[in-house]
Write a structure and sequence with these properties.
51% helix, disordered N terminus, two-stranded antiparallel sheet, 3 domains, Butyryl-Coa Dehydrogenase, subunit A, domain 1, single chain, alpha+beta, 9 strands
């Protein structure tokens, strides 16, 4: 297919596994990102502000509904949606987090846990990005142990529910139109999902400041104080944390794709710099130790890309399990951490300057390394699967 330049970081040509139609979509995403997002990514990251003007561009791409039946002209494969996440993360991991929270966590909750009527009520507008979603699970006192320690409560009161509690680190929440809130039903002690719409009394979202990673993402502290949610906004098929986990199982792989994008962006920035930076009379790309760093980075990118491509195949065949996504998230995010550090090393002192992009990738990698399951939690998921013994503390 003419006009589709291979990634500098895709040495083995994994993108060739996409169909021509899929590759055309990825190219359209790439061109939009290079034209509209790349020029402003560092500016908004430094200011910790969100560039709302790019939402129209994302909307025009018409890719938000690719993962869901009836929400796009053709349902996309996991390979296609993975490469879209890679493309966005390759330019701006913050923007990929915004996109992933909306299309994966929020839309995925409605798709998997909502009734047919609820899917029809919310998903089309979300697919058109006319309504932006958020996903509120993590709490101030509950991160990795949130499954057993969820403190936010829901109490049935006639045809409504009263939600009380707090959520933390909720991406998109300061401006989202729909926030999927997970709360424990006081009556049966089961975790259930509720769609809280913008303007609902008793719902307050306050932007978290002072972040050193994913600064463009508008994370919020949420307070729910007798937040009144109608029964019609309770997700009908969310009746236990097992249902919440089903959503996370599908999105954790997307985080791994974003991590590949982050390290690929850092590698490509380092490669460009090494070809332009002259020391001792020649480009530093010609020195042995710099080439060692570049080869190590490319190896990390290539092996990680192979892993997420394999995961996408399992997902498209419907045979993926918790341990498949967990292993990808754990391994890829660890390799990403090494890769962005090596990229900074190639740039030397200039690597800490935002103008060279690598510093942004290096900082953002720290958040990707931790969210949607820390390395340790994902390792325990894999360990339980391969040994048949759980090492989780109860």
């Amino acid at each position: 297919m003419t006009g589709f330049a291979a990634h500098t970081g895709d040495l083995y040509g994994f993108e060739e596994q996409l169909s021509d139609a899929e590759r055309a979509i990825v190219l359209r995403v790439r061109e939009f990102l290079q034209a509209e997002v790349a020029p402003i990514a560092t500016e908004y990251w430094e200011r910790a502000e969100f560039p709302f003007q790019v939402i129209d561009g994302f909307r025009a791409l018409d890719t938000a509904g690719l993962m869901y039946d009836g929400m796009a002209a053709h349902r996309g494969t996991r390979l296609l949606t993975g490469f879209i996440a890679l493309e966005i993360g390759r330019v701006d991991p913050s923007m990929n987090t915004f996109y992933g929270v909306h299309t994966g966590l929020a839309m995925g909750s409605v798709d998997r846990c909502g009734s047919p009527e609820q899917r029809e009520r919310w998903l089309p507008a979300m697919a058109r990005m006319e309504k932006i979603g958020a996903f509120a699970l993590t709490e101030p006192h509950g991160g990795s142990d949130v499954a057993g320690g969820l403190e936010t409560t829901a109490r049935r009161d006639g045809d409504t529910w009263l939600l009380n509690g707090a959520k933390r680190w909720i991406g998109n929440a300061t401006f989202a139109d729909l926030v999927v809130v997970w709360a424990r039903d006081e009556e049966d002690d089961q975790v259930k999902g509720f769609v809280v719409e913008k303007g609902t009394p008793g719902f307050t979202a306050t932007k978290i400041g002072g972040k050193v990673a994913l600064r463009t993402v508008q994370n919020a502290d949420i307070v729910l104080a007798d937040c009144v949610v109608p029964e019609e906004n309770r997700l009908r098929r969310a009746n236990s944390f097992r249902d919440t986990g089903d959503v996370l199982r599908q999105t954790r792989g997307g985080v791994a794709w974003g991590a590949v994008g982050c390290m690929m962006g850092a590698y490509e920035a380092a490669l460009r710099y090494a070809g332009e930076r002259v020391q001792f009379g020649r480009p530093i790309a010609g020195f042995q130790l710099v080439q060692d760093h570049l080869a190590t980075m490319l190896g990390n990118v290539t092996s990680s890309l192979a892993m997420v491509v394999g995961l996408a195949g399992l997902q498209d065949r419907g045979v993926n399990k918790d341990e498949h996504a967990a292993l990808a998230k754990s391994v890829v995010s660890t390799r990403m951490r090494e890769t962005v550090a090596l990229a900074r090393e190639v740039l030397g002192g200039n690597g800490i300057l935002l103008e060279n992009d690598v510093a942004r990738y290096m900082a953002d990698a720290e958040a990707l390394y931790s969210y949607e399951g820390t390395r340790e939690i994902n390792q325990l998921i894999v360990g339980r699967a391969v040994t048949g013994l759980s090492a989780f503390v109860r």
